[in-house]
Specification:
Blueprint (H helix, E strand, L loop, with lengths): L2 E6 L3 H16 L3 E2 L8 E6 L4 H20 L4 E5 H7 L2 H5 L5 E3 L7 H6 L5 E2 L20 E5 L1 E2 L10 H4 L4 E2 L2 H13 L4 E5 L12 H9 L6 E5 L8 H9 L6 E3 L7 H6 L6 H14 L4 E8 L6 H14 L3 E6 L17 H24 L5 E9 L7 E4 L5 E4 L15 E9 L4 E6 L5
Parallel strand pairs: 1-2, 1-3, 3-4, 4-5, 5-6, 7-10, 10-11, 12-13, 13-14, 17-19
Antiparallel strand pairs: 8-9, 15-16, 15-18, 16-17, 18-19
Helix pairs in contact: 8-9, 9-11, 12-13
The site of iron/sulfur cluster has 10 residues, from helix 6.
């Protein structure tokens, strides 16, 4: 049996695409291996959101050159955002690459590796939103479900609209069908995926879609990423409040606390408008965890703009953030702007942001000390095999231990339980015992 390995870079969208690539290759009779040296086909599912991700891929790709020398039958495929952007230029840059597959052409991987005629697939695929691909999911109790592809927002720093194309939504019927099947197979938690889920529009709008999914018996938790602040409606807030399966967590990228910079970023909201939405969310759902993305050192960003971001972090008190130095992406509007910020200033600003947020994250986690929280068990803790690990509805990691006399874990992964939080750390919570029986 031939083997393949997949190395995934970037966001959840890519992680889920890799599950589809694995599903397609398994359907063709191959099996997956974690070890590249053991593989007949190595797939790199790439990301070009920041230069760092691109460099990481190129260095990994470089390492396969010698593998191929030792095993000339080895095939190398590049998929994802870099594949889409570089296209056939990749064959020139790395002649040992065999196949290049764009973001809308995953379904063609089997044809590509079977035939010898065509080595790349980079065209637009108008059927992307309705194709059902076999999917090899790593977890049995949790699943990603795509609800839309592409993005129409053209934030001035971002390559995604160029690498993933225009927004197309899956039909509500197909989404519901997939989720019902997943629940039938034992899935308890579903995360809906899209670059801007709030603008979902098909047979229904996004709140309508949530309502329909919420009604599926057997599903326990419903999450979604990513929300765009400009499209976060009062109707969605009301739905989140009233639908019991929708978890009390929203990832709502702010990007900057300066309205001037937000406008240069083409984000479509001011800081004040963003803050009003956060207040509404917290008023409707007092326990909601809010996380965000921040970019440090966007072109034109002055000390004052940076200070606005720092003040925003203090004022909003996010539960957690992902923060990045601005990375120039060729082809974007921001790449053509003047007044780029020197690297060392970007680095200083980023570390100030991260340091402050670390304190805030710990403080927010401490609010949970002494409280009982619902936890969906994911498995054994990676750092301490004596502990089990799971997540709260607010998406926070909880490590805890419930063992029987034989020191076996009492609760299986995928089961729900209640845990009392005894200590908060910055990146996780420590829990104690079960208060309520598992379900
Ligand atoms: N530079 C830095 N960060 C970026 N992001 C997107 N493009 C860039 C870029 N060019 C960040 C944004 C986005 C997250 C997924 O990645 O914060 O929300
Ligand atoms: Fe990129 Fe903006 Fe689209 Fe998000 S909403 S993918 S940041 S263009």
């Amino acid at each position: 049996m031939k083997k393949f390995s997949i190395t995934t870079f970037g966001c959840q969208m890519n992680v889920h695409d890799s599950e589809k690539i694995a599903g397609l290759l398994c359907k063709q009779g191959m099996s997956q291996t974690e070890d590249k040296k053991d593989a007949d086909l190595i797939v790199f599912n790439t990301c070009s959101i920041r230069q760092k991700a691109e460099q990481k891929f190129l260095s990994e790709l470089g390492k396969t050159k010698s593998l191929k020398r030792g095993m000339p039958t080895l095939k190398i495929a590049v998929t994802g955002c870099i594949a889409q952007q570089m296209g056939e230029k990749l064959f020139k840059k790395a002649p040992y690459v065999d196949y290049v597959l764009g973001t809308q052409n995953i379904h063609l991987i089997s044809d590509l590796i079977k035939g010898n005629t065509c080595k790349s697939a980079l065209n637009d695929n108008p059927f992307i939103s309705e194709q059902k691909l076999p999917t090899l999911r790593k977890e049995k109790f949790r699943a990603w479900v795509s609800i839309m592809y592409g993005c129409n927002n053209f934030c001035s720093y971002c390559v995604v609209p160029y690498t993933r194309g225009r927004e197309t939504c899956r039909s509500t019927e197909n989404i519901l069908k997939e989720i019902k099947e997943l629940v039938g197979e034992g899935v308890k938690e579903v995360t809906l995926l899209g670059q801007n889920v709030n603008s979902y529009s098909s047979d229904t709008d996004f709140p309508g879609l949530l309502e329909k999914i919420n009604a599926i018996p057997g599903l326990e938790r419903l999450r979604f990423v990513t929300s765009h602040p400009k499209d976060l409606s009062d109707k969605l807030i009301t739905s989140m409040e009233s639908l019991d399966k929708v978890c009390e967590h929203i990832h709502l990228p702010l990007q900057s606390g300066s309205t001037r910079i937000l406008s240069l970023m083409n984000r479509g909201y001011s800081y004040e408008e963003y803050k009003i939405k956060v207040d509404k969310l917290r008023q409707a759902i007092p326990d909601i965890a809010i996380t965000s993305d921040i970019i440090a050192g966007f072109p034109h960003e002055t000390d004052k703009d940076h200070e606005d971001t720092i003040n925003a972090l203090r004022e909003i008190e996010f539960d957690g953030i992902f923060a990045f130095k601005f990375s120039l992406r060729p082809g974007t509007k921001a790449s053509l702007m003047e007044r780029h910020i020197p690297e060392h200033i970007k680095a200083e600003r980023l570390s100030e942001i991260l340091k402050l947020q670390d304190e805030i994250t710990l403080m927010k986690n401490k609010e949970l000390e002494g409280r009982a929280v619902d936890v969906l068990i994911e498995g054994i803790s990676k750092t301490n095999p004596a502990l089990q690990t799971g997540r709260t509805r607010g998406n926070k990691i909880v490590n805890f231990s419930v063992i029987d006399k034989e020191r076996k874990f009492l609760l299986k992964e995928g089961s729900l339980t209640q845990v009392k939080i005894i200590r908060a750390r910055r990146h996780s919570l420590e829990g104690d015992g079960v208060l309520k029986g598992s379900t």
